[in-house]
């Protein structure tokens, strides 16, 4: 009986695995056509100066709406795009789209604000990344100091490999922000040798800030690092006024999260924050 059961489990497992693989392959096919079919768009989430309670910038977040799979979250399709190399064209599209949007907002006369986009390690490995970025910034006539690239801390495990590209980005005048700071398990020594402007405290440390003294100690420490190394600090994932108040007490300069706003379409953003 045990043997039979084992065999059934094995069959069940292979069927499940086969379905998973088929879904993945089908999703890859869909993603391959996503740009051409106009299925990609950006949402923008405001960032606030906590002391002045004023919007000072925003993060562009990629969205994919597909006929077969519906709204696929980025945590699902970004890894697939990275695995398949599609991140090259998708990543380029995100940067151009954000820059075009900035150009349009400037044309409409809105107050200029910093825009950041997320970047994958795969993109930083492109040898011509810096050149492409410089060309795009120039083409859209955007102030480079208003543009920023968010890279996750785990990317720093490959710091030697990407250092020349990071320096090129810096020389263009574009900002570099370390995303999900505190979760990357990497040595902190990169902070002193790299051209970094901002660190973003990961949402996991904000979540339980009210009740968890350890989280509070970590947030305090990150703010200290930021102050001492002259880096700006952004707290991600602020959802409640209680979290906001602690962060203000700790003198965290900038925050982002559902408390202020969820990521918005350009139309919603213009209505609520830009007009
Ligand atoms: P991230 O860069 O850390 O972005 C923050 C994520 O947290 C976003 O999820 C945002 O919607 C969500 N968020 C913001 N405020 C709150 C809050 O108060 N509470 C909670 N629970 N969540 C909040 P999203 O849009 O699903 O993006 C997930 C991740 O996908 C991003 O994490 C980023 O790493 C990646 N991603 C998104 N767009 C791009 C892109 O264009 N390129 C690349 N390479 N990665 C991207
Ligand atoms: Mg980000
Ligand atoms: Mg983040
Ligand atoms: Mg995060």
Automatic annotation (TrEMBL):
<feature type="domain" description="EAL">
    <location>
        <begin position="24"/>
        <end position="275"/>
    </location>
</feature>
<protein>
    <recommendedName>
        <fullName>Diguanylate cyclase</fullName>
    </recommendedName>
</protein>
